[in-house]
Amino acid sequence: MRSEGRRRAGTACAALGASLLFGGFLLFVTVPVVSLFLRISPEAFIASLADPVVTDALVLSLATAGASVGIVMLCGTPISYINARIAYRGRGIIDTLIDIPVILPPAVAGLALLMAFGRYGVLGSYLSICGIEVAYTTLAVVLAQVFVASPFYIKQARASFEAVDRSLEDAARTLGASPVRTFARITMPLAAGGLVSGAVMTFARALSEFGATIMFAGNIQGRTQTMPLAIYTAMQGDLDASLALAVILVIISFGVITGVRYAVRR
Q1: Among 8, 156, 176, 249, which residue's CB has the most CB atoms within a 10 Å radius?
Q2: pLDDT at 93 over 70
Q3: Comparing C-alpha atoms, which of 200, 209, 252 is closest to residue 104?
Q4: Which of 266, 103, 101 has its CA nearest to residue 194?
Q5: Higher per-residue confidence, 40 vs 66
Q6: What are the transmembrane regions (predicted)?
Q7: 3-15 mean pLDDT
């Protein structure tokens, strides 16, 4: 009886400890996010939406993140498919190179891009001769976002292609379908959920990029000042504007999470 009582007491203590730990972690994650909404009134939020700093940053962020996703999908889809289907020599090295942007600190990524595409960079010096300036332009924002966000799509896309049953592709080829038709009609639809999930995560990562952008593209309103940069700048004098931008990013992030879960379930 005593051992049974001790066992029940131990189970109750473990359950209580787990509940406190779980609840404490939820509060730790939730309270800061909720605080953003509590610190700005609806009137101040609406007024901030008319602020050129907010609108410029919002439009620029959505446009550059959208362009980045398009570029990543265009370049990353064939790379992911090749890595998923062909065991070529050096594939491990390619995988490592793809993962480098995830490992690098954002500031280092921005500096690396500047050394490559800046006016006196390895490639930028030749572009400058042709009259093409990359650093501190909107193009630099897109390149920074592509650099840091592309691994999220490529890794997810590869996993999705690897999950496609190759026998279905072989059957389509046996029936006379060309490789391109097989890819478009069989492989892509079956991997679509993972591709959409990867694209959404890429969009979210591009939208939240800060370090590489400010190092490589600068912080110029209407040109290179994305939402994270605008939040950082507004914190120095306009708290309502920074809160409004932060709330918008939280809403978008929630939408991203919902979109990813929906894509995965499909």
Answers
A1: 156
A2: yes
A3: 209
A4: 266
A5: 66
A6: 12-38, 58-84, 96-117, 123-148, 183-204, 243-264
A7: 68
Average pLDDT in the 28-47 region? 87
Residue 265 banded pLDDT, cuts 50, 70, 90 = low
Indicate the helix (H) or strand (E) that contains 62: helix 52-85
Contacts 24+ apart (CB under 8 A), 40-46: 40/240, 40/243, 40/244, 40/247, 44/240, 44/243, 44/244, 45/240, 45/243, 45/244, 45/247
Residue 10 and residue 2: Cα distance in Å, rounded? 12
The distance from CA 151 to its chain's CA centroid, rounded to whole angstroms, is 9
What span, in angstroms and rounded, lies between the C-alpha atoms of 249 and 227? 8
Q: Which residues contact 145 (CB under 8 A, 6 or more apart)?
A: 64, 65, 68, 205, 206, 209, 212, 213
Residues 6+ apart with CB under 8 A from 48: 40, 54, 240, 241, 243, 244, 245
Model confidence at 2, in pLDDT bands (50, 70, 90)? low
Tokens 């594939």 found at: 91
Mean pLDDT of the 67-89 span: 93
Other CB atoms within 10 Å distance of the CB of residue 215: 20
- What is the DSSP track for 181-194? HHIIIIIHHHHHHH
